[in-house]
Specification:
globular; eight-stranded parallel sheet; alpha/beta; 21% strand; five-stranded antiparallel sheet; TIM Barrel; Immunoglobulin-like
């Protein structure tokens, strides 16, 4: 049982829980069948797909869950896309997939896992270069899926292609199709009041179906004790909301992109020069017959008497009736409350997990307005993630957007960045608990197959410094990610990413539970699962395997403190040194009872 109690997650004994878990999994972003490549015209025509078997087939579930459990990762952030639930059309739910999820989660509960359902999306949809929403959400607004790439409205990568450069897929957040969809979803009533679907405002149409799909899922899972809650949306995006000058492309991410106004013109068939490259020379229109540009329809731009386009409202997305609005301060908090109300009609005890845009401040969601909630931001070792290199002495502060030099300074910076999430949760969100929803490293560092053992050392060091930042802040977290079908050739099956802590290509001894694991010296580490009091300090050295833990005991709690101690770093056993009290050991867990009268306690574990 997991409960929200002030700024902590606790169990039925009021012990403070430290959750260690994993996102399951990267390949859940795409259908299990059929697998159709971008070069095949069926990619755009196929609507009846199946996600049954994502993240893995049921007959392999025991194998994967046993492995994760032995690694100490007992909290699952289960990736479930909107498309997986409602791909066939509005209001048509995939009952076979929901039955599969029920069976999978029932098995997870039998293995001792808890799970949060993650309504996952990246840049809106598979058809706009990411994952998430069904194809019909784009089509009902007038987008021609076959013209998205040709018109520059989105960049789409084949999941079989070689690794694309950096995070180029993320530039789609600023491109016409994804930016339009996010703007309509969160703020269509304000910025696109003329746009309707079947007589319904676009915002209400999209939100109604999103809420309907995940509420339907919640109603089918509410009797499963292992399901503790639901996230509002993975990495929400503002779209065009707040964009001050539509002719400026200064807000692009990672790669040159058209300005919003250029994107609108490209979609309407007007070629544009984006940096040094002329885009859409073939004058393709992204709009289906009978549809016109949504932003032209809503007065953002038009053509003059000579047929030349002109921008009419360069700051259209910054103010509504004289007032400034933003995703962070208004639109996301409003939707999060609506999402919570909808989910709790199906599952009244559900914990709601909230987050803001990656790299941005926390949304203005308070624990007073949204009770029983957890702040679940994402954070990555930025340099390592973006350039697929590990440099011991060069890092980046993802919040302040500055370079950090020196190994010690980098470690301090990482800890400070995570500490800021705690600060936000305490001062701006009314004392919410914090769970780091995603962190991890790419495993194709330096891409040197002939030096795989050396690169394994680098990924271990890279991942360890993220774990140390997490431990410094006494913070729960879920790694990105575990893909059961990861291979060196395909990675995680999403835009060339290779971030799974397991790979079939490295499973040289399938009969051994750890075979196929990656950077396990960093992943598998001791930690206090349930603490009878207040956590004070956690430190683990993956080289010496020395683990130190200190806490302040709560005399009102009689249940023991539980510390996970894995076999992997202690193949010959371990020694325990206590400040006081006594301990017992069973099933990879130390059960510690302190002496009465002692305010603070220390446990040290070393290899034998």
């Amino acid at each position: 049982m997991i409960r929200v109690r002030q700024h902590n997650l606790t169990d039925e004994h009021n012990r403070t829980l430290l959750l260690r878990g994993v996102n399951l999994g990267g390949s859940s972003k795409i259908p299990a069948s059929p697998r159709v490549d971008l070069a095949d015209p069926r990619f755009y025509n196929e609507r009846i797909v199946s996600f049954v078997g994502r993240p893995f087939p049921l007959d392999r579930a025991d194998e994967h869950l046993t492995r994760l459990r032995s690694w100490g990762l007992t909290f699952l952030r289960l990736v479930v896309t909107w498309e997986a639930l409602e791909h066939a059309g509005p209001g048509i739910y995939d009952s076979r997939y929901i039955e599969y999820l029920r069976a999978l989660l029932k098995k997870a509960g039998e293995h001792g896992f808890h799970a949060v359902i993650d309504p996952h999306q990246d840049v809106w949809s598979r058809f706009t270069g990411g994952d998430g929403a069904p194809a019909w959400t784009l089509e009902c607004l007038g987008f021609d899926l076959t013209k998205l790439v040709e018109s520059g409205a989105a960049m789409v990568y084949d999941w079989n292609a070689n690794r694309p450069p950096l995070l180029i897929w993320a530039t789609n957040y600023a491109r016409l199709a994804p930016a339009t969809m996010f703007t309509l979803f969160f703020a269509g009533n304000d910025f696109a009041p003329e746009t309707r679907v079947d007589g319904m405002p676009a915002q209400e149409f999209l939100q109604q179906h999103y809420l309907g799909a995940f509420t339907h899922l919640a109603a089918n899972l509410r009797d499963l004790d292992c399901v503790v809650g639901y996230e509002v949306m993975n990495e929400p995006s503002r779209g065009y909301i707040g964009w001050k000058n539509l002719k400026s492309s200064g807000q692009f991410r990672y790669w040159p992109t058209p300005s919003p106004y250029q994107g609108m013109l490209l979609g309407a068939g007007y070629p544009q020069r984006v940096w040094l490259h002329m885009t859409n020379k073939q004058r393709a229109r992204v709009w289906l017959p009978g549809y016109d540009c949504i932003w032209k329809q809503n007065g953002v731009w038009d053509v003059d008497s000579r047929g030349r386009p002109q921008l009419l409202r360069p700051s259209h997305f910054t103010r509504v009736q004289g007032h400034e609005h933003s995703l962070r301060q208004e639109y996301y908090p409003r939707f999060a409350l609506e999402f919570a109300r909808a989910i709790r009609r199906a599952d009244p005890e559900a914990i709601i997990f909230v987050q803001g845009e990656p790299g941005e401040r926390a949304p203005r969601v308070s624990s007073q307005a949204l009770e029983n909630a957890v702040y679940a931001p994402h954070w990555y070792d930025g340099i390592t993630l973006m350039v697929r290199r590990y440099w011991n002495h060069i890092g980046v502060d993802m919040l302040e957007r500055r370079i950090v030099l020196g190994a010690g300074a980098i470690q301090q910076s990482f800890a400070a960045q995570l500490a800021f999430f705690r600060h936000e949760a305490e001062t701006e969100m009314g004392g919410m608990p914090v769970l780091l929803g995603e962190f991890g490293v790419p495993f194709d560092l330096h891409n040197r197959p002939w030096l795989r053992a050396a690169d394994e050392l680098l990924t271990t060091r890279a991942l360890d410094r993220s774990f140390r930042a997490l431990e410094k802040n006494l913070m729960s977290g879920t790694l990105w990610n575990y893909s059961a079908d990861n291979t060196h050739e395909r990675g995680d099956s999403f835009n060339g990413e290779d971030m799974s802590i397991f790979s079939v290509s490295e499973q040289t001894q399938p009969q051994k539970i750890d075979s196929g694991g990656r950077a396990l010296r960093a992943v598998i580490r001791p930690y206090p699962r349930a603490t009878a009091g207040e956590l004070l300090r956690i430190h683990y050295d993956w080289l010496t395997h020395k683990f130190e833990f200190e806490y302040r005991h709560d005399p009102k709690i009689s249940a023991p403190t539980e510390i996970f101690v894995p076999n992997h770093p202690y193949p010959n056993g371990f020694e325990v040194e206590l400040s006081d009290g006594a301990w017992q050991y069973r099933e990879n867990t130390i059960f510690y009872q302190p002496d009465t009268g002692q305010p603070a306690h220390k446990i040290v574990i070393t290899k034998r």
